[in-house]
Structures are given as C-alpha cells and as structure tokens.
Amino acid sequence: MQTPLTIPVPVLRLPRGPDGLSRGFAPDGRRAPLKPEVPGIQECPIAQESAESQEQRARANLRERYLRSLLAMVGRQVSFTLHEGVHVAAHFGATDLDVANFYVSQLQTPIGVQAEALLRCSDIISYTFKP
Amino acid sequence: MAMRQTPLTCSGHTRPVVDLAFSGITPYGYFLISACKDGKPMLRQGDTGDWIGTFLGHKGAVWGATLNKDATKAATAAADFTAKVWDAVSGDELMTLAHKHIVKTVDFTQDSNYLLTGGQDKLLRIYDLNKPEAEPKEISGHTSGIKKALWCSEDKQILSADDKTVRLWDHATMTEVKSLNFNMSVSSMEYIPEGEILVITYGRSIAFHSAVSLDPIKSFEAPATINSASLHPEKEFLVAGGEDFKLYKYDYNSGEELESYKGHFGPIHCVRFSPDGELYASGSEDGTLRLWQTVVGKTYGLWKCVLPGKNFYSELPNSKMHGFFCHFSSLILFQEEIASENSDSIYSSTPEVKA
To answer: Looking at this predicted complex, what is its ipTM?
Structure first.
C-alpha cells in the first residue's frame, strides 16, 4: 500500500511584512477590531461624524475601483514609465498584497525581453493600458 | 488525508533573530515582539504574524525583547549598552536606561511597574518604571555575563542564567536563595507561572526544573544542540530548536518525539508557544520568524482547513489571481500543486530563495 500523499495546510495569505516606508504603528491598525470605549465623549457632533464616514466610503470606493482596475489588467499589455526616462512594456500578471511589486511576463527592456520579472512599485512612475 | 505543516514566514528583519516574546492575551488578541541583530525590533500581531511596527532607536544589535502582559509596553536590551522601554501602541520610545555593558535580557513584572535587566556587566538591575530618574536596585553575584533574567513566583523572586549557572534570588532581600550549576553552557530559560516550571536548555538537553526549589523534574535529549525550548501552556507538548535548523515537538509526558520540521535556513535561536498554545514561533539566524501550528490542519489565524472534496479555488473571488502570490522580501513563490486524482489543488510552497 502506498503512503498517502500529504497536502500542505492551505493558507489564506502570507503574513504582511513591513511596508518599507514607515515605522508602522498605524493609529487605527491594531486597535480597529474592538470598538474603542469612549465613556465621556458625547460632544462629537453628528455633522462631523457623517463627514468622516463619507470620507471613509469615498476611500473604500476608490480602493475598490483601483483593485478592479488591477484585475482588469491581468493578461494585458501594459506600458510602464520608470525612472530616468525608461519605458518598458510587458504582460501584466499580478501584484502582491501590498501592491509593492508587479509580476509581469514578456518584459520588453532596452537590453532584451525578460520572460518573467518582478517590477518594484517604487521604481514605477506610471503605467498605462487599454482594457 | 494527512496534512503537512505549512509554516508562515515573517520577513522584514535583515539579520539573525535572536529573541522573541509573546504578550498575554488582550482584548485585541495577542502580540509578538522579535529582537534582531539589525537593531530594529519589530512588533507583530501574534496569531497572523502581520507586521504592526518597528521600534526605531537602538544603535546596536538588540539581544532581548519583551512585551508586558497587555501589550501596551515593550522593552528591549541592546548592544548599545542600553535597555529601552517603548509604548507598544504608538511605537514611541518612553525611556532609555543606560548600562555599563551590552544588555542581554529584559522582563516586566506582572503589573508593569518594574523592569528587570541583565547583561554582560554581570549585574541584575531592577528599574522602577514610575520613577525613571531613580537609580536602579542592583544585584551582584554572577561571575559571567547574564543571558536571561526573569521574574517568578508572582514577582517575589528572580531567576537568572549566566553561562554555567542558574540562580534564584529573593526580590525583597536581593539575596541569592539557590543556584544550579551546569557543565555546559546554558542556552535558554523559560518560566511557566502555572505550575512554577522552569525550562532550561544546555547542550542537547531540554531540562525541566521547579522554579521554586530548582529541583529537577525531568529532561529530554534532542538529536542536536538545542538553543531554545518552550513548554505548551497546557503542558502537553514542548517544542525545541537549535543548531541543526530543525524544530522538534515532543510529548511532555512521555518524551516521545512527535514531529520535526525543516524550514529554517540557519540555526534556530528562540522558540516560544503563543499564550493560547495554538501556534509556536521560531526565530533563526536566517533572519526570519516562522509561525507553526500546534495542531496541523486546524483552522486558525491564516491557516484554513479545507474539507476533503471541496475545491479551495471556488472560494477565491477571482480564480485568475491564485497563481501569482509573491512576497518579495523572502521570495516565496506559491504555485499550483499538480493535482493528483483525488486531492484538491491548493497552495504549496516551493523552496525559498533568500533575498
């Protein structure tokens, strides 16, 4: 009898790493899940509250639109403008969770075509594609 | 179908990880702090390994790090001859405590009012955190550099380890109560308050002693030199890691080796169980922290149990994205596992390439 094939335990995602930009400790980061206890603070006007939630909704909306744009890019030809006036084109594959890297294939560079590559987002100034 | 352990690698450090500590369980979950030779200790969410922030300020390798029970404060011990106390919510430095040599170990009392430090100057120091300007109380007696110092017996006593001895001190009288001598260098020490157990590692031995009397309870031998070991909160298992890069899990009662895992690319320096016992974390010379499940296959944190017969991909919002998860810093590539006739396609990890 053959030994059964073991399956690695699936994971939802990898642990998030440092963002490389700041030292972290985002104010609403780790304390977000629990509703903060605000025993005495009732003077917060309703108008202020709704402006904040409006902004939050707008941000969520923009974020969703950006993520959908990334999904729409999958498999398409994208032109990237990098630093020092460099332009490259490639087929877009995916980004990682923090959108710190773009996974691309058939990257056309001034020194040849790279079959698979990772473009660092910090190196990219802008990118454009036709859906 | 048998499940294989999937460790979660936490990247971010650029040098060996030499110490790690969990907080207690707080209303926000529990947290993990890692000490690194790159001088930048990091705070992470304990159950997922997600990075929360980096404590910036030390000018040398950080040898020891700890969190207080409710994870509101952190303390670090460094080669720049200082110990620092931090606000663990904002990341701000609260206090810098100057020492006369490399500081190796820090520990808060249960009420976070006092900090115990120890290091190469062979002195134990007790700082009153409510009076940071006051001189610390000093306990001398060690004849070699102190590697680890811990409060025990409800902060009424202190346990400290140097190269070849472990000593028990009375806090009130600041005098030595008892000591243990070893032939080999003591590599680590862990104190378990419930049951007053002390876990000491030296050579290939993992030894358990009473924290009150220092009398030996039992000990196990591992296949390689062990640098750190940790006992599960329910005292069913212990985990240990050392020079052969592997992590070992033993049954505490029988001493039987239950599991062993390869994965790290360098010696393991520290291993600790989480406060709920559901996972354990290891820190290595390879600069990474890894989280391991105590019960392999259980749904917890980022690990997701998949029932046999269910296609994992049907749960993802866009099945096109699945093949391309890349985590740059540690270059782990998740590829589709070639589906066998009766297993489901799920993530599998290919060998890592260290950046």
So the answer is: 0.79
